[in-house]
Design a protein that fits this description.
Structural class: alpha/beta
Number of strands: 11
Shape: globular
Order of helices and strands: EEEEHEHHEHEHHHHEEHHHHHHEHEHH
CATH topology of the largest domain: Rossmann fold
Number of helices: 17
Number of domains: 2
Distance between the termini: 41 Å
Radius of gyration: 22 Å
Oligomer: single chain
């Protein structure tokens, strides 16, 4: 089924596909995968090459175009552009506490969720390519952050119909364990905390005052969860993007109001914290994030275990309160009420040690697909040194290593970033 809409400058066509949950059992359970096609209004009848976009995450839907601008505007100058809602997200068959309630046991939930990693996202893309373009057609790939991880898996599993690939902030640490990844990224997060407090030194006392309240009182968020100190610390996830310091600072500065019984944490502050830490809206991120570093081994809550090596994140009276970053912890399945029904399944997946490899280094070392990638020098989420290490094993890849942007360079300056990658693949820079 296809539905077409128009917004200024773009024609949008919706596509929904029925695909196997498990590609080893093609006649078994089916799920839906959604993709939205975007084409410039004046090129709607042109025979353009197709570019498919893989969103960051895991567990996030593709962007919804609001206008013809930024990186989407740049993409439709040259391509018919396909925005993929990766399985489990957006208008694809969703994964959340409501849909997962249909399973009778945590093991059934876990067995279902094992099929939502990058390898099956790639298989879905291949299914869509054949359905839309034909079995022998080729297309181009664009991936932001985790989307770049998916592209690297694509180049490992099914490169033969890929014309070219563009990666922004997402060359994966393919040769590293989850523990090594978190040791590196915790250090980046510490640096970001130091930079935050250097920019906003008054927030040292403000944050301490908030934590003092959370430690001695039961503070409830608008939807009913208790706001714990450890959940509050997760605001640091924003530090890896342009404007992330400001996003947190402007929330912190409005934390307190004068209520009926004196000074208390205000509704607007609590609502803001809830919105910025809404992991239940993207439960795949909470449940499967560590598995993106699982190459044939259990991750076993690596972020939680490695955190113990960094006392900076402990709450003590002799140092500022440090925020955490892109780390998932087992306690989240206690503190977030809508993650609680998935707690046992998450534990089963954390101890699962039979994950299929996501990358084939032999295939990557013989790669013939033109690939260009941005690597952000100070990236808080994807460690630069590990990305560069992986790149040495992808034959022919061209890197643009830059400190001009944070991890969200594609969103911050999409036309320039995408134009440079296009030029790199075409040999124009």
């Amino acid at each position: 089924m296809t539905i077409t809409h128009r917004i200024p400058g773009l024609v949008l066509t919706d596509h929904t596909f029925r695909v196997p949950l498990d590609y080893s059992q093609p006649d078994g359970e089916q799920i839906t995968v959604f993709a939205r096609e975007a084409v410039a209004t004046e090129k709607v009848d042109d025979n353009l090459p197709v570019l498919i976009y893989f969103q960051g995450g895991p567990g996030s839907a593709s962007p919804r175009p609001l206008e013809r601008g930024g990186w989407i505007g740049r993409a439709v100058k040259d391509y018919r552009f396909l925005l993929l809602d990766q399985r489990g997200t957006g208008l694809s068959t969703p994964v959340n506490h409501q849909t997962m309630a249909r399973f009778k046991t945590p093991q059934e939930q876990a067995d279902y969720l094992k099929h939502f990693r990058a390898d099956n996202i790639v298989r879905d893309a291949e299914f869509i390519r054949k359905a839309l373009l034909g079995a022998d057609a080729s297309w181009s790939l664009l991936g932001q952050s985790y989307g770049g991880f998916c592209i690297t898996t694509y180049l490992s599993l099914a490169p033969e119909h890929v014309r070219e690939a563009f990666i922004t902030g997402g060359v994966p640490p393919a040769l590293r364990t989850a523990e090594e990844v978190y040791r590196a990224t915790y250090k980046r997060v510490i640096d970001k905390n130091n930079a935050y407090y250097e920019r906003y030194p008054d927030d040292i006392e403000r944050v301490r005052a908030i934590v003092d309240v959370l430690e001695r009182e039961t503070v409830t968020l608008p939807q009913g969860d208790r706001l714990t100190t450890r959940r509050f610390q997760q605001l640091g996830l924003a530090f890896g993007g342009t404007g992330g310091y400001e996003e947190v600072h402007y929330l912190i500065e409005q934390a307190f109001v004068e209520g009926a019984n004196g000074r208390e944490l205000g509704y607007n502050f609590l609502l803001g914290v809830e919105k910025q830490t809404d992991f239940p809206a993207h439960p795949i991120f909470a449940i499967l994030h560590e598995s993106i570093y699982g190459q044939g081994a259990a991750t076993a809550w690596a972020a939680e275990r490695v955190r113990a090596e960094y006392p900076e994140f402990e709450i003590t009276s002799d140092q500022p309160v440090y925020f955490t970053g892109e780390m998932i912890y087992p306690w989240m399945f206690d503190d977030y009420c809508h993650l609680q029904p998935l707690k046992e399944a998450a534990n089963l997946l954390a101890t699962y040690d039979a994950w299929e490899p996501l990358y084939n280094m032999d295939v990557l070392e013989a790669n013939t697909v033109p690939v260009a990638a941005t690597v952000y020098y100070n990236d808080m989420y994807v460690e630069r040194q590990f990305a560069e290490e992986t790149a040495t094993h992808i034959k022919g890849i061209k890197l643009w290593v830059t400190n001009e942007y944070e991890h969200n360079g594609l969103r911050a300056d999409g036309e320039r970033v995408l134009s440079r990658l296009f030029d790199m693949v075409r040999g124009e820079v």
